[in-house]
Automatic annotation (TrEMBL):
It catalyses: uridine(38/39/40) in tRNA = pseudouridine(38/39/40) in tRNA. It comes from the Eukaryota. InterPro entries: PsdUridine_synth_cat_dom_sf, PsdUridine_synth_TruA, PsdUridine_synth_TruA_a/b_dom, PsdUridine_synth_TruA_C. GO terms for molecular function: RNA binding; tRNA pseudouridine(38-40) synthase activity. Belongs to the tRNA pseudouridine synthase TruA family. Residues 20-104 form the Pseudouridine synthase I TruA alpha/beta domain. GO terms for cellular component: nucleus. This is tRNA pseudouridine synthase.
Amino acid sequence: MLNISTQIYYHFTSGRLPTDKSCYRHIKSVECIPTFLLGEHEYTVIRIIGQSFMLHQVRKMIGLVLGILRGYATEDVFDIVFCKERVDIPKAPGLGLMLNQVDFSYYNKKYQNDGIHQPLDWSKYEDQRNEFMMQYVYQHIDQIETEDKSMLQWLATLNCHTYSFRDSSSPTIVDDKVSETDDLQIVAIEETTLHTQSNTNGKRDYDDSDKCDLPIKKERMEL
């Protein structure tokens, strides 16, 4: 498991300026789950735990890691991906990206002993949830990947990226009103919206976390 602190994820989204404070995100951990078989394919799950995610953020994080694993970039790229100059980072397909769990540990710690609120704990449903994921969700992901081969085809494009500074100008900046609201969205392309927990003063409790899983097929494409 890899622990990551707060960084500016300007290169992992679109339509933002590097000075936009909303590009700062806190990732608590990144974990690779042991592989498992679905039909003829071997999969792993990349579990990312963070406090909120921006448009394309997780897909670009995965894209960069796979680019490194495939040998198109080295770990030295991490020296530049958090700077203000635009960097060319591939964006992995959205198939399989999901909000897996909402973590209410900070909420429970703060309110469960006040005599009013009950703790939010889903651990007793863990077995049923895992069974449902394996029987329906992962099976569906494998079926779509088998038919469309979106991941396999995308892997062939990794060599088209420079993994370095871009020569082109910055992307179009979104309207200020959109920036204000989009800060509370998680990977809008997956049509999943998550609002962070707010306290009584209207400020965000930044210790509540979201867990985002992205199954990745480990089958290597022969190029």
